[in-house]
Write the C-alpha cells for this entry.
Amino acid sequence: MSLSRGQKSLILLALDLWLVMVSYLAAMLLLHDSRLMPLVLLQDSLVQLPLPMLAGGVLSMCLGLSKIRLREYEGGAVARTAALAAILMGVAMVQAQLGQFALPPGLPVVFALICFVSVYFSRIVLTGVLTQIYLRSPKFTRVAIYGAGRTGMALAQELRKSADFVVCAFIDDNAALGGMTLNSLPVVSGAQLPKAVASHKIDRVILAMPSLSPDKQTFMTQRLEKLGVQVQSLPAFAQLHGGAELSDLLKPVGNASLLSRDPLTEELPEGFAAYFGRNVLISGAGGSIGLELCRQVIACRPAMLVLFELSELALYKAEAEMRVLAEPLGVEVVPVLGSITDAVHVKQVLETQAIDVVLHAAAYKHVPLVEMNARVGLSNNTLGTAVLARAARDAGVMRFVLVSSDKAVRPGNLMGASKRFAELVVQDLAARPSKTVFSIVRFGNVLGSSGSVVPLFREQIARGGPVTLTDERVTRYFMTIQEASKLVLLAGSLAEGGEVFMLDMGKPVRIGDLARKMIKASGYTVRDAANPDGDIEIVTTGLRPGEKLHEELMLCKGARATAHPKIIWVREHHLSELETAAALRDLRSAIDRGSEVDVIATVAWAVPEYAPQSLPEEALQCQVVEARRALARNIPAE
C-alpha cells in the first residue's frame, strides 16, 4: 500500500518477464526429447530465451499490461494478454526459422498457451491477495452496491478506478440473482444482508437504483443504518459518464442532506416509557407523518397500535407495512377506517380499544385546496380535532398530542387558520381539569411529505423542468419526516399540559436555494442568464392566495428549553372556555348551513391574526360583529 504507481508497474513488468521465461522453459520440458539430458535442454533454452523475454517486456509496456491496476484486470486487459501470448508465439516461430533451432513440434503454440494462462492467473491471484489485504485495512472503504442492474454494474466499474473504495458485493432483492457472480462480485439477496455486512466487513452501501421512490429509499436507509453502515445514493446512470468526480455524485440518502443544519438523528430513549406497553391510536396513520409515527411508535413496543385513517387505500398499505414491523415485537395492529368528524365512531374506538395515547396527525394540509374548500377544510381540521380531543378526554385517555404547523402562527391562509383554531380547542381543553394531558407539536415544512415542495421539485426535475417557484424571496423552515415524528413522540412524553412544542430548526431555507441544490444533487445544472446552456430552468409564478413570504414559529416571546436541547416549548394565549365554545358552535352552524362566508368569518373572529383575502372586508366586519353579539348573549355552545 506504500508503493507508488510507478513502483507497482515495475513489479508487474518484472513479473511478466519472469513468467515469459518460466513459460518457455515449461514448454520445452513438456515437449522435450526424452533422449536429451535436462542439462543439455537447459543450455539450449538459455540461448533461445533472450529474444522472447525482450519481446515480452516490450509488449507488456506497449500493451499497457504492467500499468493496468489489478482491480481493473478484466475484459480488455484479458484481450491484451491474449495478444501478448499470440505475438510471442510468432516471435518464437521467427526465432526458430532464423536461428535454425531444432525446436520440438508445437513448442510456440504451447509456449503461448502457458504464457497466457500464467499471466492471467497471476493477476487473478494477486487481485485476491490484494483484496484480502484491503479488507483488513482501515485505510480503505469497503462498499456494497444495492442494485445489480445497469446502474449498479456501471458504478462497480467506476469504483474500481478509485483508490479509496473496495467493492465487495452486489445486493439485490431479485431472488433469481441470489448466489450469482457478476463482474467477479457475488450477488447477495436482501434477506442475507446482515450476514453479508458482517462477512465482507462492509462500511458503506451505495443505492444504485435511481428509480426508487423517496419513501422506499428512506425505509431501506433505516434498515441499513441499523446494521452500522453508511448509506449513499447515486442519482442517475447518466451521471457516471458526465465527467464529474464519483465522490461528487455520491450523496447521503434521504432528505436530510437538503437541510442547512444537522438533523435530529439520535435515538430518544426518554420517550420510550410513554408508549411501552400502551394502547396507542394514530389518526391519519396512512399519511406521510402518520406512517412514520407508526414506525417509530412500534419501535417503542406498545401493546397495541390503532391505525385510524379515512383513505381505504392508505390504510391498507399502512397496515401491510406495520404488520411486518410489529410481528417480531409482539405488537397488535388494529386498522380502523373512519373519519375523525364521526363522534360516535371515534368514541366507540377509544372505549373499545382502551386507548392510552392519541397522536392526532389527520388533517387537510395543502394550502390552495383548503383555501378553495373552506367548509370541508374547517370541518376536518378544526371540528374533527374538537371531536377527537373531547372524546379522548371523556374516555380518560392519558395523553393527547396534536400535530400542528408553523402556518398556524399569524396565519396568512385558511389552512393555517384552521390549524390555529384547532390549537385553541386543544389549549382550551388543557386548561380544564382532566385526566388527559393535552399538548401541541408545531413544526415547519416536512421534507418529502406528500404534496410538499421537495417531491414536486423532484418530479419537475425528472421531467426536465422547468422548476417552478412562487417567489425567489420565499423562505421556509424545514425538517425531515423522522425529525417531525421524534418531536411528536417527545411531546407526548414531556408534556405537562397545554404546551406548544417546537424543534430548533436553525435558520429558514430560501426555496430558490433549495431548488438549485436539488437540481445540482440530481446531476444537472441550472439554466439562467449566467448559464444559458444549463439543463433545468427555474420559473417564478408568483405567490399563491394566502401564501406568505416568511413563516414564524411562535406567537409570543418567552420560549423555554426542555430536557432535550433541540426541543423548545412555549405557552401561548388562548380563548376562554366560553369564547371557544361559542366559536365552535358558530363554526358548526356555518358548516351545517353550507355558508363559506360564515365559516371564514367565524375563523377570522376566533383567530384575530388571520385576515382572509377571499372575503370582502365589509362582509367580514359584518359577520365578526354578529359573532361578537351572539357571544355577548351567552348563547349555549352545546
